[in-house]
Design brief:
This protein is an alpha+beta fold. The protein folds into two domains: 1-30 and 199-223; 35-195. Helix content is 24%, strand content 36%. The chain is built from three helices and 14 strands. It has helices spanning 3-29, 91-94, 200-222, and strands at 37-41, 49-53, 56-60, 64-65, 72-73, 80-81, 102-103, 106-110, 116-119, 123-131, 140-151, 156-165, 168-178, 188-194. The protein is flat, with a radius of gyration of 23 Å.
């Protein structure tokens, strides 16, 4: 291999590495690792759950009693965190202390289907008060909802959104389940998984194709 070809190949490799780091920075800099799963549900010990009021899904909770003083305690919704993985694996411990995670109510609109309903637009802070498993004090994270399509026949919904922690964010997809198809109110659960942002992929692919094209042109010149 000629010196020119060696320098060119090295430069291409450097471009790929540097470019990948630049494009991937938002995901890698985030404290939420792709593949991490956050699981939420209504805790039976505090009472509460979800109920349908017209086309609104109302997440609610009952107040509890301090076992030491006997005083009435109001813990918001008292959302439970359980069996979470990755960046959320210790959230079920960190989130035991107030303020506990909360979930915003959802006002849904008909989609044209007799059984499908959806949010009319993005909802910032749909879930808030959850912590990340990255040391003490734990970093807080919120989940902004961008898509929520609820099936009133099954009581379930597919959802999409973004986990946000400070200046970092990562896309996520999830599933909401309830027994609202057979009872109102009912219990519920939410499972949300952080995933690599699809928007990054075209950029990475384009960079790779451009680098290969330049490499082939250099090889022709050296030949």
């Amino acid at each position: 291999m000629s010196f020119k070809a060696f320098v060119s190949t090295t430069a291409i490799a450097g471009t790929l590495i540097t470019g990948t780091m630049v494009v991937s920075a938002p995901a890698e800099a985030a404290t939420i690792v792709a593949g991490s799963v956050l699981n939420l549900s209504n805790p039976d010990v505090l009472g509460g759950g979800i109920r349908r009021v017209g086309n609104t899904l109302d997440f609610y909770s009952l107040s509890g009693t301090n076992p030491f003083t006997g005083n009435r305690v109001y813990l918001g919704q008292g959302v439970g965190v359980s069996d979470s993985t990755g960046s959320f694996e210790d959230s079920n411990i960190a989130s035991l202390f107030p303020p506990l995670p909360t979930i915003r109510d959802l006002a849904l609109v008909a989609t044209g289907s007799p059984v499908l309903f959806a949010i009319s637009g993005p909802i910032t802070g749909f879930i808030s008060g959850t912590n990340l498993a990255d040391g003490f004090p734990p970093s807080s994270v919120r989940f902004d909802l961008t898509s929520f399509i609820w099936n009133s026949t099954t009581g379930e919904a597919d959802l999409r959104g973004v986990f946000v922690s400070g200046s970092d964010s990562i896309a996520a997809v999830g599933r909401f389940t309830s027994q609202l198809d057979i009872a109102n109110p009912s219990s519920y659960s939410l499972s949300i998984k952080a995933v690599p942002t699809p928007a990054l992929l075209p950029g990475l692919i384009g960079m790779g194709i451009a680098a290969l094209r330049r490499k082939k042109e250099e090889a022709k010149e050296n030949a």
